[in-house]
UniProtKB/TrEMBL annotation:
GO molecular function: metal ion binding; xylose isomerase activity
Keyword check for Metal-binding: yes
NCBIfam families to which the protein is assigned, alphabetical: PRK05474.1 (NF003998), xylose_isom_A (TIGR02630)
Family: Belongs to the xylose isomerase family.
E.C. number(s) listed in UniProt: 5.3.1.5
Signal peptide: 1-23
Domain of life of the organism encoding this protein: Eukaryota
UniProt keyword list: Carbohydrate metabolism, Isomerase, Metal-binding, Signal, Xylose metabolism
Keyword Cell membrane annotated: no
This protein's name: Xylose isomerase
Catalytic reaction annotation: alpha-D-xylose = alpha-D-xylulofuranose
EC class of the enzyme, as a word: isomerase
A single BP term in Gene Ontology: D-xylose metabolic process
Amino acid sequence: MKGAELLTLLVASFLCLSAAIAAQETCPADLDAKCGDGASDDWEGEFFPGIPKIKYEGPTSKKPLSYKWYNAEEVILGKKMKDWLRFSVAFWHTFRGTGGDPFGAPTKVWPWEDGTNSLAMAKRRMKAHFEFMEKLGVDRWCFHDRDIAPDGKTLAETNANLDEIVKLAKQLQGETNIKPLWGTAQLFMHPRYMHGAATSPEVKVYAYAAAQVKKALEVTHYLGGENYVFWGGREGYQTLLNTDMKRELEHLANFLQAAVDHKKKIGFNGTLLIEPKPQEPTKHQYDWDVATTFSFLQKYGLTGEFKINVECNHATLSGHSCHHELETARINGLLGNIDANTGDPQVGWDTDEFLTDISEATLVMSSVVKNDGLAPGGFNFDAKLRRESTDVEDMFIAHISGMDTMARGLRNVAKLIEDGSLDELVRKRYQSFDTEIGAMIEAGKGDFETLEKKVLEWGEPIVPSGKQELAEMLFQSAL
Ligand code: XUL
Ligand code: CO
């Protein structure tokens, strides 16, 4: 091919690609009736032809499209793996993720997408989502209201759009026996929420958010969801110079109390979950981490009404390990759900990657086992394909890999428990408290005068080794 022809071809392919990328953009929030006109929810045949139902083949399998460690029906530590793990697919990452980032256009061109945010497209996408879950063998899903249905020009129109999609989801759920693990309201993307939703200084925005959560709670209940999540993406501040923090926190508490009241009013028995995150998109988010969220719940008399959804990547953003956040939630009776993902140690933001670190998964599963599972919560893959992963099969491979990693973590915890050495090391470390004086202190009766007398009698204590390296060796030997 001559140079000039090659150049023409390159320019033409670039223009085609740009057109495809431009067509990927969604309709504006105040949806113009023309946006997506002509689109159809019809689809001939399967959305994922050539992808089989994913089966367990064991650790020797070399097939990417098979489970090596996750064997749903296998009993481990007295429960089926599927009941320990209660996996769910996050609709937003899996079906609304475009691969776009602040520097670049979308990269994913899924065959079923027509580039619109129309109702017809929302229906077609929902059908693809159910085929995806069935093939994967996952029987739960998670969604934001606005992921699944487009905004209308008014709240009434938006709610009508949502009802139409929810009706289809309900029908597909009936055909597949798949249910929501949780639903939530998207209170961060629309410009009206730029200063926050429940913490916006504008009363009409607070009211709008209330109306949106009311509807999202009702829809989650209607679909048989087992939990409802509050992630306060913009409930925080960019600068304290223009912020009345006390007032905003009080508004947030009142908002959450009203959600509790509405949940009871409609007879929704699902668990309400708060998902902490320290920042992004705000400079400071009020639900910074588990401990901050717990103290907020205590201060406003909301404990007992809420549990916590720990997201591993949010944990690391707050300067903790995921294990720390899980244990903080667990020992306070607050561990309700896990958004299983991970960040990148060299990157400072929420990269929402599938968790594939076996050591990390073993620590996560040790908290889950100590908690005797997460039900009615479970695991949500709040994780997305990398921008550069553009094959349809990558959607499956990512989930299989994430599920196998958690399953492997569970198997490792069973090994650690069976071996018993690590538990014994911890028990021994505290055995001095299994004495008369230790029991007195633990019962809150260790007054300082009695303890001073004891010290005078005992002399200088002999302090044993912490055995950290041995603990690490025992842990590693199970991986
Ligand atoms: C954002 C995040 C959300 C919540 C649901 O970081 O984790 O997707 O899980 O709103
Ligand atoms: Co999340």
